[in-house]
Amino acid sequence: MRFLIVDDFDTMIKITKDVLNDLGYEDIITARNGEQAYQILTKEKIDFIVSDWNMPVMTGIELLKKVRGNPKLAHIPFLMVTAESEKDHIVEAIQAKVDQYILKPFNQEMLAQKIGFILHKKVKP
Predict the structure, then answer these.
(1) 125 assigned to some structural domain
(2) Percent of the chain having pLDDT more than 70?
């Protein structure tokens, strides 16, 4: 399974990568913003997206909407990781068909639970 981590902060990329590695996932690609991520998505096979919300060039919510609007990419599980806790942001992400939403700061167990929940949900009919 190939993961795409999208975040503009190296520390968050490292934390997310470490959690994924601990869960047994080694095939991980990273992007610094939504635009770079979208370019990767159109060229590479990606099975799961973990994206920050606030990034330069293209935000995570813009990336989510673009992914869901592309029939070739719309099926990819999408986990939004963000400091945005306002109800409006959460509603916007849900309306854009995010699979799960996790607030920063988070711990390894929380991230592992969200990823596990999404993967379990996606394989069930």
Answers:
(1) no
(2) 97
